[in-house]
Automatic annotation (TrEMBL):
Name recorded for this polypeptide: Molybdopterin-dependent oxidoreductase
Lineage, highest ranks first: Bacteria, Bacillati, Actinomycetota, Coriobacteriia, Eggerthellales
Family the UniProt entry places it in: Belongs to the prokaryotic molybdopterin-containing oxidoreductase family.
Matches recorded under SUPFAM superfamilies: ADC-like, Formate dehydrogenase/DMSO reductase, domains 1-3
Every 4Fe-4S Mo/W bis-MGD-type domain range: 76-133
Pfam families linked to this entry: Molybdop_Fe4S4, Molybdopterin, Molydop_binding
Keyword Signal set for record: yes
Protein keywords: Iron, Iron-sulfur, Metal-binding, Oxidoreductase, Signal
Length: 766
């Protein structure tokens, strides 16, 4: 049980035993289980809550937990906010403030995308802001690292002194490369997402390449069309065919569901390609329940069928493409029977998919989710699908994400300040030590990872973590834990709550929520630039990323202008050249960015070296050893690793749950109650073979670790040989291990991305 010290008293961070079972947690007093106290002098406590309306018979001095309905009914002011989470929806929010206190949030009803609704994750944002386990002051570790950690409150002056003195000593003794940082998308805001990075550029720190998200898709694009296809999410409603491939918008892109429903009601067809039955399957005309990691084989089989049956746009191929012959030769061997054997599906589904795609080729939306790219063969799988859209002459129908593109991040990060070279798809050359996100555990434990950089003789001696919760979100979590447990590793964490990662910190710095600072958000999942107003003052002594960069940079003795930037400087930077004024954006809260049309894209040609749609290319050959797409079985799969498969014959996938988001919301009681038990979903045949019944306690394990789960055996939910358990739970809250104790930290085929979904396990009764 973690504790902090307050006025010479030991105070628990979490009022429960970490070993408590999930079932016990739900049966217990969950709404009070994480409370730390309400004293204004508390280290991580918020200000006293005002009394709400009392139920009849309740004493005058009592308080009521939850939302303050009396305050909601009071006269207040409404403000525009924008959710800065790493989510496809980027919800546009209306925030109500009464007497300087946030009392209510709801979706912006005037925006066509958000349309007044928020996802289940964010319905309790008011409670999120004023939780009693908010970190409000800097803290210093006084006990061991990890569970059972103890902290005491210190001043900002002391925290900065400790941090900068330690960094200066490390630089003098081991060079800047002995320091690194780790950040991800806990903050998607244009200003604050990367504005701390210049501090580490200046120190010459080991470069961290953030690559836990969408690298498989993004780094596949240069070989086909060269750019992200932009379309309005609202346009889904007007399509004749919606293809959901390795995607579950009900959990990860909720606001698109209403457009999918509208399309279906109007008579549109739906295809779902997924190892797991998802809600869209209730309306699907075709459900292709293939085995995990075989997406590329299925796509190549569809390509062969389209070619063999003259279902190709010959004029588009002739005028706008190169490499068609290479592609046709590569897919020629992928007969429907071979696809069926590799993918574990009926052979006739190849033809059924191809026929629907060709019939609706001019009015199709083909949407892929992030999980497919998070595999050892994810990048090539994306190319396999993209090339289908070239065959039918409509590459614009395929989108993995849509975005307003209104705000970049390079200016905030001041990337011009970073003059070193790090590896890319095109070159392995590097002039500075670096690593990609999945390798965090290897880096911190001294393994020599990637591009010949040595982490054993010159180990990382300090890491600063912000905008991320790697003890929830990173793969091969047991190795990450081993690294963070090092007593000789000086760890600084900047966060809102005491996350599982904070438990390993030496210095903890309080971060604000996005309601406590101004921000600009480009649309992520839609085409609206969003404005986020600062609606309340920062709680306690929390400090945003921009101010923190200035504070630490100046304390290190750096005089560069980048460590003197103001919020007004950043605001001007991002509004420069926009089609709206600051005042217009503040008043409305969002701006509709017109997407570039398909016709306009064709006028200038594709963003590839050839200016053509590329079925094959010399660039792909140089970077990946093949001119056109090929199917490579996942190295952690039945075909790719028969010996490993013999030991661990179940492919485990770990998609997003609707109640959580990466490393966020795992401490919210309401979210945990809605989520319920930590289940593993099994195919009925696999369960029967193992003597497992629905509701049994089971152990899921491989060489990386093990997790305990409750078995759910529901007919038709999982493909044979496949299991699913959801990500993002906090073991400090649930009492059971996070799925990333068993996921792989291997480097995916494109962009040094993550391979969470390449995960073989065995499952046995506990």
């Amino acid at each position: 049980m973690g504790v902090i010290h307050r006025n010479d008293k030991t105070v628990p961070l979490f009022e429960k035993n970490n070993a408590m079972s999930r079932r016990g947690f739900l049966k217990g007093s969950v709404l009070a289980g994480l409370a730390v106290g309400t004293s204004t002098g508390g280290l991580i406590a918020c200000a006293p809550k005002q009394n709400a309306s009392k139920p009849a018979g309740e004493s005058e001095g009592a308080t009521v937990a939850g939302y303050r309905y009396e305050a909601e009914a009071a006269e207040g002011t409404w403000h525009h906010s924008a959710c800065s989470r790493n989510c496809f929806d980027t919800c546009m929010i209306m925030s109500k403030v009464v007497d300087g206190r946030l009392v209510q949030v709801c979706g912006d009803k005037d925006n066509p995308y958000t349309a007044g609704g928020l996802c289940v994750k964010t319905q309790n944002y008011v409670d999120y802001v004023y939780r009693e386990d908010r970190i409000l002051y800097p803290m210093k570790r006084t006990g061991k690292k990890g569970p059972g950690c103890t902290f005491e409150r210190i001043s900002w002056d002391e925290a900065v002194q400790i941090i900068t003195d330690t960094w200066k000593q490390i630089i003098a003794e081991s060079g800047g490369e002995a320091i690194t940082w780790f950040r991800y998308q806990g903050n998607q805001g244009a200003i604050h997402r990367r504005c701390l990075e210049p501090l580490f550029f200046k120190m010459g720190a080991t470069y961290h390449e953030a690559s836990l998200c969408n690298n498989g898709y993004v780094f596949s694009l240069p070989y086909t069309t060269g750019s992200i296809t932009v379309m309005r999410a609202e346009d889904i409603a007007n399509k004749d065919l919606y293809v959901s491939w390795s995607h579950n918008p009900a959990a990860g892109s909720l606001h698109t569901m209403k457009f999918i429903k509208e399309m279906h009601k109007a008579g549109g067809a739906i295809i779902v390609v997924n190892p797991m039955r998802v809600p869209e399957c209730e309306w699907a005309d075709l459900f292709v329940q293939l085995l995990p990691g075989t997406d590329g084989a299925f796509a190549m089989g569809v390509g062969k069928y389209l070619i063999d049956n003259a279902m190709v746009d010959e004029s588009f191929i002739e005028e706008w493409s190169i490499g068609y012959e290479d592609y046709a030769a590569s897919v020629a061997e992928w007969t429907a029977d071979r696809v069926a054997e590799e993918c574990g599906i009926p052979a006739e589904q190849v033809a059924q998919f191809a026929e629907l795609l060709w019939k609706n080729r001019t009015s199709t939306c083909l949407k892929t989710g992030l999980q497919m790219g998070r595999r050892n063969n994810g990048g090539m799988s994306h190319i396999s699908i993209k090339l289908l859209t070239g065959l039918i002459g409509h590459p614009e129908c395929y989108f993995n994400m849509t975005s307003s593109g209104g705000y970049g991040v390079n200016s905030a990060a001041n990337l011009d300040m970073f003059t070193e070279t790090v590896p890319s798809e095109a070159s392995s050359a590097s002039t500075i030590r670096n690593y990609s996100s999945p390798a965090l555990g290897k880096v911190l434990t001294g393994e020599n990872y990637g591009e010949g950089h040595d982490f054993s003789t010159n180990p990382i001696r300090s890491i600063m973590i912000f905008g991320s919760n790697p003890m929830v979100s990173n793969p091969n979590q047991n190795l990450v834990r081993r690294g963070l447990e090092r007593e000789d590793l000086f760890t600084v964490v900047h966060d809102i709550f005491v996350t599982p990662t904070v438990e390993y910190a030496d210095i903890v710095l309080p971060a604000p929520t996005f309601f406590e600072y101004e921000e600009f958000n480009g649309g992520y999942g839609h085409n609206y630039d969003c404005y986020n107003e600062q609606v309340i003052e920062p709680l306690g002594e929390s400090m945003n990323n921009l101010d923190l960069c200035n504070l630490l940079g100046q304390a290190m003795g750096y005089d560069d202008d980048v460590f003197k930037r103001t919020n007004e400087d950043m605001r001007s930077m991002f509004l420069d050249g926009q089609k709206y004024t600051y005042e217009e954006l503040v008043e409305k809260g969002w701006f509709d960015v017109e997407p570039k049309t398909w016709e306009a894209q064709l006028e200038s040609g594709f963003a590839t070296p050839s200016k053509k749609f590329q079925f094959a290319s010399d660039e792909l050959l140089a970077d990946h050893g093949t001119r056109t797409v090929v199917y490579s079985p996942d190295p952690e799969g039945k075909t790719g690793s028969p010996d490993l498969f013999a030991r661990y014959p179940i492919a485990l996938v770990s998609p997003s749950a609707k109640e959580f988001l990466n490393g966020v919301f795992g401490n919210m009681e309401d979210n945990n109650i809605l989520f319920g038990e930590s289940y593993v979903y099994l195919n009925e045949g696999d369960a029967q073979d193992r003597g497992i019944a629905d509701g049994d306690d089971v152990v899921v394990s491989n060489d990386r670790g093990s997790i305990r789960r409750i078995a759910r055996v529901v007919e038709g939910v999982m493909a044979p040989g496949t299991a699913c358990t959801y990500k993002s739970t906090w073991s400090t809250v649930t009492g059971v291990e996070n799925v990333n104790c068993v996921t792989a930290d291997s480097q995916a085929d494109f962009g040094r991305g993550v391979a969470y979904q390449s995960c073989l396990v065995d499952i046995v009764k506990a």
